[in-house]
Automatic annotation (TrEMBL):
Pfam families: E_motif (PF20431), PPR (PF01535), PPR_2 (PF13041). It comes from Linum tenue. This is Chlororespiratory reduction 21. Gene3D superfamilies: Tetratricopeptide repeat domain (1.25.40.10). InterPro entries: E_motif, PPR_At4g14850-like_plant, PPR_rpt, TPR-like_helical_dom_sf.
Length: 718
């Protein structure tokens, strides 16, 4: 740039004056104001500053840089009234937001041209003063495609999509032909309003007017086809483009991102010649939402290293990714960064940070941040209520909920989920009833929580009632609600009902398969569970819970060979509980030596339950020698895992070795360990009554124990 300036500081440009002026005009587009004033001084020195083209460029430069005194000085070079100069002053006033000043300048003009009128129409539209803009438009004597397009694009910018389409239809009735900008705005309006038929009908007109290869039109067509769900058409437009910009690449990237094709999305992202904050944010956000937080964070680090601008959406996605991996320290660093760049007051950023602190167990820090947010929205309140619920602080959650100015169904759902996690099932159903009485309709998350409570308490009638409400709301086909319904029916003993829901679901994910297979296996339908597993798409390997259910089914149906086959196929995915299932399967089949060898060769520390399964097999198949060895191992395991003592106590009790039972109980007492009491429940008149061993908390516990003593007396031998 400096060398270009020096080349212009020639003592005599007269030799090639036209080339000199051309170089000056091109420089005015790029040079900063400091060098612009230097060039202006040189032009005055050599007497060329009064050249009209140069004077106009100088005027625009000073107006753009908000130098009114210098601009007025340049304006003196012109006649008392110059139309171009007046238009420049009007445009500068509009860009600086001084609309009334622009209007005054316009009104004072003795004559006006199409630029004068269109500048005012466009300026008022950009400022959101639509009515005033239209007032000037309808009085404009120079109505052409530019002024029509200014109104149509102005409507789109102000979110008035239907008005934009209506204005376009009026334009089509005139003799004026739309241009590239017109089509771009109208296609956007069609995408936003879902007027896909109108959008498709424009294709012929776009081709007829020769705009089919214009960059902005092609970008708008890609977006339109994406909104219509026409991925192939979007890709064809993209592939046929002679030139692409970052908007084109980001649009096609967004297509794959929206359809969860992360592999193809990443390929497109890596091929992009240039990326903006939208494309970076789209990839980071989708990685975070799709359960790939590490990838999201790696991409964010690359983005930071490249010095890209980080918008609110991107920062929120990164905080969510850190929340998923519970990276509290890194999250605190991001919190500090948001304070530094002034984003901590954004409600979405603050809500994500509250969620991070609460999910990392720091509810006090989350509450401090919550209290510091001046303008809280419903998302902020819900984040804090959900955070208290997640950490079992239900009193605080309930107090905050009652203080909330306008709770929505998400707020109710967060509180219900908290009581569910805290196993306060009565409170879960009580809150649901309150919610309905207040006219608040439950969402999908609420139904999932309620159905989970029904499944845990085996409340089939309540579950059926909720199923009916889901049908009434039209959400029974939702994959999450359908999965929760399947789980509820299976755990409540109605396997047939679970199968009906499962078979009617239009969409099934990994968790739906898991719930159905687990329900069949645990209900004694082992063969059916294995048959369903074999129907699964082999491209989707089983998760840990599904694999446990399959091995459980093989164990309880005596299908040892098949179980071992699954073991060899998925050996790299096995954990301690899977090995326990295998030990149980071999022990039940009498293959005790193989079970012992498996325990010895485990790549992980054997669970006490694995040793208990082997010991149970020894008792069943009368192998006293191996039983004694296993008991010793179980004693050693009990030293590492308190659950082992409970296991030993139960085994000795089942064998009638009461002296050993007392010894184990004594050790447990010395170590401060306590066995959880047994619990049972029954549902009567739509209310669940739970009973714990040695508990007298029930309102009718005295009458219950009287009847129980009477029954015990009747059971005594005569």
């Amino acid at each position: 740039m400096r060398s270009a300036i020096k080349s212009l500081l020639a003592p005599n440009p007269a030799a090639n004056f036209e080339a000199y002026v051309s170089r000056c005009l091109s420089l005015f587009k790029t040079i900063p104001i400091t060098q612009g004033t230097v060039l202006h001084g040189h032009l005055i020195k050599i007497g060329t500053s009064s050249e009209r083209y140069l004077s106009v460029k100088l005027l625009i430069m000073y107006l753009t840089c908000r130098k009114p005194a210098e601009a007025r000085q340049v304006a003196k070079e012109f006649n008392p009234f110059d139309l171009v100069v007046q238009n420049c002053f009007i445009n500068a006033s509009l860009q600086s937001g001084e609309l009334d000043k622009a209007r005054k300048l316009f009104d004072e003009m003795p004559e006006r041209n199409e630029v004068s009128w269109t500048s005012l129409i466009s300026g008022f539209m950009k400022a959101g003063r639509v009515g005033e803009s239209l007032w000037y438009f309808w009085r404009n004597p120079f109505q052409n495609v530019v002024s029509w397009t200014a109104v149509i694009s102005g409507f789109v910018q102000n979110g008035l999509m239907f008005e934009a389409l209506s204005m376009f239809l009026e334009l089509c009735q005139s003799e004026i032909r739309p241009n590239e900008v017109t089509f771009t705005s109208v296609l956007k309006a069609c995408s936003e309003t879902g007027e896909f038929r109108l959008g498709m009908s424009l294709l012929g007109l776009i081709i007829k007017t020769g705009n089919e290869h214009k960059l902005s039109v092609s970008n708008s067509l890609i977006t339109l086809f994406l909104r219509m769900g026409e991925m192939d058409s979007s890709r064809r437009v993209f592939d046929s483009m002679e030139k692409r910009d970052v908007v084109s690449w980001t649009a096609i990237l967004d297509m794959y991102v929206e359809h969860d094709d992360l592999i193809e999305a990443r390929r497109i992202f890596d091929e992009m010649p240039q990326r903006n904050e939208v494309s970076w944010s789209a990839m980071i956000s989708r990685y975070s939402q799709s359960g790939h937080p590490e990838e999201a964070l790696n991409l964010f680090h690359k983005m930071v290293r490249k010095g890209k601008f980080i918008n609110v959406s991107c920062l929120s996605s990164v905080i969510n990714a850190l929340t998923t991996v519970k990276a509290l320290l890194a999250g605190m660093n991001i919190h500090g960064h948001t304070v530094k760049i002034g984003m901590e007051r954004d409600v979405y950023i603050s809500s994500s940070l509250i969620d991070l602190y609460c999910k990392c167990g720091q509810t006090s820090d989350g509450r401090f941040l919550f209290d510091s947010v001046a303008e809280k929205n419903v998302v902020t309140w819900n984040s804090m209520i959900g955070g208290y619920g997640l950490n079992g602080q239900m009193e605080e959650a309930n107090s905050l909920f009652e203080a909330m100015p306008s709770p929505n169904n998400v707020s109710w759902s967060a509180l219900i989920a908290g009581y569910l996690d805290d196993t306060q099932f009565d409170k879960v159903f009580e809150l649901f009833n309150q919610m309905l009485l207040l006219g608040e309709w439950p969402n999908k998350s609420t139904f999932s929580s309620l159905l989970c409570a029904c499944a845990t308490t085996a409340s089939l009638e309540k579950g059926k009632n909720l199923h009916g409400k889901a049908i009434k709301l039209g959400i029974q086909s939702d994959v999450f609600v359908g999965t929760a319904l399947t789980d509820m029916y299976a755990k409540s003993g109605d396997v047939e009902g679970a199968c009906k829901v499962f078979n009617r679901m239009p969409q099934i994910n990994e968790f739906t398969w898991t719930v159905m297979i687990q329900g069949l296996a645990e209900s004694g339908f082992a063969i059916e569970a294995l048959e369903l597993f074999d129907k699964m798409d082999s491209r989707n390997p089983p998760n840990e819970l599904m694999l446990s259910s399959i091995l459980f089914a093989c164990s309880h149906s005596g299908l040892v060979s098949r179980g071992l086959q699954y073991f060899r196929t998925f050996e790299t995915k096995l954990n301690g509980s899977h090995y326990t299932c295998l030990v149980d399967m071999l022990s039940r089949a009498g293959r005790l030596e193989e079970a012992e060898e498996l325990i010895e060769s485990m790549p992980v520390e054997p669970e006490p339950y694995a040793l208990a399964a082997l010991l149970s097999g020894c008792q069943r198949h009368k192998n006293e020698e191996l039983a004694e060895k296993t008991v010793k191992k179980l004693w050693r395991a009990a030293e590492r895992d308190s659950g082992g003592y409970v296991m030993l106590s139960n085994l000795y009790a089942s064998a009638g070795r009461w002296k050993d039972v007392l010894e184990v109980r004594k050790l447990m007492k010395e170590k401060g360990l306590k066995k959880n009491g047994g619990c049972s429940w029954i549902e009567l008149k739509n209310q669940v009554h739970s009973f714990h061993s040695g508990d007298g908390a029930h309102s009718q516990s005295i009458e219950i124990y009287v009847v129980l003593d009477l029954l015990m007396y009747e059971m005594l031998p005569v």
